[in-house]
Design brief:
271 residues, alpha+beta, 2,3-Dihydroxybiphenyl 1,2-Dioxygenase, domain 1, Nuclear Transport Factor 2, Chain: A, 19% helix, elongated
């Protein structure tokens, strides 16, 4: 059995209750256990944790009182192939989430690494962050700080800023993000709407967000380009982690690098 080089050992109040959570809901397997000691060593594709039932007077290394929730100030990230099945099991068990599923990108030097993640507490209050890998992408202007960051592909920066604006809940901030990359009379067209100008696009994005609260748009392909035209794929991720069918946008860039037109299609081409 492969043993990770760092394995947390958690003291728990009731090993059986903890196993129902870690094994039956999160999907960990019991690699081995010592029932007579209230101990179990768990593994989930290389993510490992030890559980030991607290017994007063036993040889257990306590640095203070075990006041609930346990593990304050720490969360244990567990990488999984897909968060969807785990969310379904938790929902069937009516187990509450500490934080709803989201898509988050973190800067790592000159790239961003993405993950679909949610937070949930075990029976003792330990906080677990369950994460699904979304890969890497080039670092472009932050959707929060709006600080220009260099990129080797000049077409990717306006596209990623445009996609980030679809995830910005504040209309004023959304307009601030789009203004540098959206031409004055640029048009946005998809099967449901045709808009002209910045204000109309800002308002339309707000309407879409209201219809799917907590959802996010992520670019899922490289940006293809030629003769000032661009093409890229994207996907909307719902608040519960469900991924909607992939869409494709076609765009036109002006000589100033601003988007003059976006035409979006939902789902794959009809066959």
């Amino acid at each position: 059995m492969f043993r990770a080089k760092l394995v947390p050992e958690l003291l728990v109040a009731d090993l059986a209750a903890s196993l129902r959570f870690w094994r039956d809901l999160l999907g960990f397997a019991v690699a081995y256990d010592r029932p007579e000691e209230g101990f179990a060593y768990l593994d989930l594709d290389g993510a490992q944790v030890m559980l030991e039932q607290h017994e007063p007077g036993a040889r257990q290394w306590l640095t203070g009182a075990l006041d609930r929730p346990l593990g304050r100030g720490i969360n244990f990230q567990t990488d999984v192939g897909a968060v969807g099945p785990i969310l379904e099991r938790l929902a069937r068990a009516a187990w509450p989430l500490f934080m709803a599923c989201e898509e988050k990108w973190y800067r790592a030097d000159d790239v961003e690494v993405g993950q679909r993640q949610f937070l949930v507490q075990d029976p003792d209050g330990y906080l677990i962050r369950v994460a699904e890998d979304l890969g890497e992408r080039k670092l472009v202007r932050s959707a929060v700080a709006a600080t220009p960051i260099s990129t080797n592909d000049p077409a990717e920066a306006p596209i990623d800023i445009y996609c980030g604006a679809w995830n910005e809940p504040d209309p004023a901030r959304r307009e601030e993000l789009l203004a540098p990359v959206w031409a004055a009379n640029a048009t946005y067209t998809d099967p449901t709407v045709h808009t002209t100008g910045l204000a109309a696009l800002v308002a339309h994005i707000g309407t879409v967000q209201a219809g799917r609260p907590g959802s996010r748009v992520v670019r899922t392909s490289a940006v293809d380009q030629h003769h000032g035209l661009v093409r890229f794929a994207w996907r909307r991720i719902l608040a519960d982690g469900t991924a909607l069918p992939e869409g494709v946008d076609f765009g036109e860039l002006g000589d100033d690098g601003k988007l003059r037109r976006i035409v979006g299609f939902f789902g794959p081409p009809a066959r």
